[in-house]
Amino acid sequence: MQKRLVLDEEQIEIILRRFCHQLIENHDDFETTVLLGLQPRGPILLDKIVKLLEEISGVKVPSGYLDATFHRDDFRRRDFPLKANETKINFLIEGKKVILVDDVLYKGRSVRAAMDAMIAFGRPQKVELMVLVDRKLTRDYPIMPDYYGIRVHTLESQHVLVEWAENGSEKDAIWIIEKVNP
């Protein structure tokens, strides 16, 4: 298996700080802004951003986790049943500026599904997308991130692997690996 490092722990930290400063510039005092981490991989990134935002600005931004499993357009087309994750949103998003946070933007299907799922919590004023990695050339839907850490050009035969220390990895890191064909 071929594995190529895209971002190391130090580079990821720089990107997270940049995200926080961009959010501060674009959202003033965060009175009408909320952040939602897309399950299953967005919550770790979200928690890091919320913690850094509080350190940098002193403001605790409302945040939650959103699961869009049952809103996916390929939900019934799978050979195996999908397992839902927890949706943890204890506020309404009616009239709010919502920032969806995920680790990798690939086909755009998860983001499209998340937009459907979040409507259960109200109609947002605006929706923005923040991703650590934008796989630019693989989109099925015309979805582009408002904030991205790095853009990578990948083939269908490649996979972007995001490793977090919180999940048991040695360090935070992002890799591109060749998919293994059985």
Structure description:
β2 (33-38), α2 and β3 (63-66) form a beta-alpha-beta unit. The chain is α/β, with parallel strands linked by helices. It is globular, with a radius of gyration of 16 Å. The protein has a 5-stranded parallel beta sheet with strand order 3-2-4-5-6. The chain starts with a strand and ends with a strand. It is built from 3 helices and 8 strands, in the order βαβαββαββββ. It has helices spanning 9-27, 42-57, 109-118; strands at residues 3-7, 33-38, 63-66, 97-105, 126-135, 147-152, 158-163, 173-178. The mean pLDDT is 91. It has a single domain (10-71, 85-152), classed as Rossmann fold (3-Layer(aba) Sandwich). This is Bifunctional pyr operon transcriptional regulator/uracil phosphoribosyltransferase PyrR. It is an enzyme of class 2 (transferase). Its EC number is 2.4.2.9. InterPro entries: PRTase-like (IPR029057), PRTase_dom (IPR000836), PyrR_bifunctional (IPR050137). Keywords: Glycosyltransferase, Transferase.
SSE layout and pairings?
Layout: E1 3-7, H1 9-27, E2 33-38, H2 42-57, E3 63-66, E4 97-105, H3 109-118, E5 126-135, E6 147-152, E7 158-163, E8 173-178
Parallel strand pairs: 2-3, 2-4, 4-5, 5-6
Antiparallel strand pairs: 1-8, 7-8
Helix pairs in contact: 1-2
